[in-house]
Design a protein that fits this description.
The structure is a single chain. The protein has 461 residues and is α/β, with parallel strands linked by helices. It is built from 8 helices and 27 strands. Strands 1, 20, 23, 24, 25, 26 and 27 form a 7-stranded mixed β-sheet that branches. Strands 8-5-7-6-10-9 form a 6-stranded mixed β-sheet, with no helix packed on it. The protein has a 6-stranded mixed β-sheet with strand order 17-14-18-22-21-19, sandwiched between helices. A hairpin with a 4-residue loop joins strand 9 (172-174) and strand 10 (179-182). Helix 2 packs across helix 7 (356-374) and helix 5 packs across helix 6. The termini are far apart.
Length: 461
């Protein structure tokens, strides 16, 4: 027997994640963005554009906007292949998921006439004689009132039958005989929330594709739900590569602290993923092959090893696994050596550079659009903000620069080198700076950080 407030598989109308994603795009107007270059069908990346003026070793790198579009298309292909079904999730575990069925009211809200204020329920004209026993929230209905009668009532309590209005505590006075008088005019129905004021049973409260926020959880509970039907979280495994990394203490003897192991899992969760494993993998090709080849996650995220150094094993391992390389380098700074590969029909790998800010760049360039599609989350509205200060650009590449928001301007932060986290730790967003740079006052697209709240009062300028 289905518990009250639950949704069954039949209620989900046989929707799968691909259909939910289509509804999200239809309702939000954010269909997948087209790649910057022409060519390519859905799920098949268009060939990277080549820059005749750039150095030859940069020709295979994908322009930054196109790399994000490739990640979206790759995720759509995986969604079609996986045919994942929506899941029933308790309210306490649903935060951040995407609704796969509409949230329809299971009851009238409020479900009975309710007092909106503390005071007296009154019937007929004043003065009123007052009953001794009041009406409290959560109690059974009181006996009907007769004209000239009042009863003390608490906010949220059920209105007695035949009540004319609720008189607020501060708007009433009693005489020496205990009779109640209003100190201002009383209108019929005042301070009463009538049954069904907010919704009636069966009304659609929220459509498919709605992101579950704390307010959505509250509404679902009020409307009678114990669970919601949602798109399951995409699973992500994090592989932290490198023999030089310490997990505690101060750097010493050529060893450094691992910053990405603590940073990536919560960041991926903020992007909608369920992090199923965080593994440390030594600089060994066989160990990396085993770690990637045995992962059952939808997304594998690796750190470092994407260049061509003596212990950079990511490319050789992908070839050994027969993976399809979709993006091999992106024209963005920091983070140029990031990559995206399709390891199986339903699994992808995002290779992040080992430098921390470069890894953040890779997260927002490749992992964010891929996870957003897998989770059927609505795409954020693109927006621009003028830069307070000019930003030096790269000759050929997009730059992602940490900024804080101050009034109606974005202030670029110092400490924005590939290996630095001091700037991004204080940032509200990353500004997308086009090749050649940006002048003071120029509008720049911003990429919001998942937890940004409009500035934290720290500015390293």
């Amino acid at each position: 027997m289905t518990p009250p407030g639950s949704r069954t598989g039949e209620d989900a109308e046989d929707l799968d994640v691909e259909e939910v994603l289509a509804l999200v795009n239809d309702s939000s107007g954010h269909a997948a963005r087209s790649p910057a270059a022409g060519g390519g069908t859905d799920g098949i990346p268009a060939p990277p554009r080549q820059d005749a003026h750039a150095p030859s070793e940069r020709h295979r790198a994908t322009p930054w906007p196109e790399a994000r579009a490739v990640a979206e298309r790759a995720a759509r292909t995986a969604v079609r292949a996986a045919r994942r079904a929506p899941v029933s999730v308790p309210l306490g575990a649903a935060l951040g998921l995407t609704l796969a069925t509409p949230l329809d009211a299971l009851t009238d809200l409020p479900s009975f006439d309710t007092s909106a204020m503390d005071g007296w329920a009154v019937a007929g004209p004043a003065p009123w004689s007052v009953r001794d026993e009041g009406v409290l929230a959560g109690h059974a209905a009181a006996a009907p009132l007769t004209d000239g009668e009042a009863v003390p009532i608490a906010t949220g309590a059920r209105i007695p039958p035949d009540t004319t209005a609720v008189l607020r505590t501060e708007h009433g006075r009693t005489d020496d005989k205990g009779r109640l008088y209003p100190t201002r005019d009383v209108t019929t129905g005042q301070d009463i929330r009538p049954r069904g004021q907010e919704c009636r049973t069966g009304d659609q409260l929220l459509p498919v594709g709605t992101l579950v926020t704390p307010a959505v959880l509250g509404l679902a509970a009020a409307a009678g739900y114990d669970t919601v039907t949602a798109v399951p979280r995409p699973r992500a495994d994090v592989l932290v590569l490198g023999d030089e990394l310490l997990t505690e203490g101060l750097p010493h003897d050529g060893l450094i602290r691992d910053a990405l192991g603590p940073m990536l899992p919560p960041w991926l969760r903020a992007l909608g993923a369920e992090v199923t494993a965080v593994r440390r993998v030594r600089d060994d090709a066989d160990a990396l092959h085993e770690a990637i080849g045995t992962s059952e996650a939808d997304l594998v995220v690796t750190t470092g090893g994407t260049a061509a150094g003596p212990v950079d094993h990511v490319h050789p391992t992908l070839r050994r696994l027969g993976a399809e390389l979709l993006v091999d380098g992106v024209k963005v700074r920091p983070g140029h050596p990031m990559l995206l590969a399709r390891t199986t029909e339903t699994q992808h790998l995002v290779g992040l550079p080992g430098n921390p800010l470069a890894a953040v760049s890779g997260l927002l360039t490749l992992a964010e659009p891929l996870l957003r599609i897998l989770a059927a989350r609505p795409a954020p509205e693109a927006y621009t903000v003028p830069l307070r200060d000019g930003v030096q650009g790269h000759p050929y590449d997009t730059r992602l620069v940490p900024v804080v928001l101050r009034g109606d301007q974005a202030v670029p932060l110092h400490y924005n080198g590939p290996a630095m986290l001091r700037g991004i730790a204080a940032a509200d967003a990353l500004a997308v700076v086009p090749p050649g740079g940006a002048r003071p006052g120029q509008e720049a697209e911003l990429l919001d950080l998942p937890w940004a709240s409009g500035g934290i009062g720290v500015c390293f300028t």
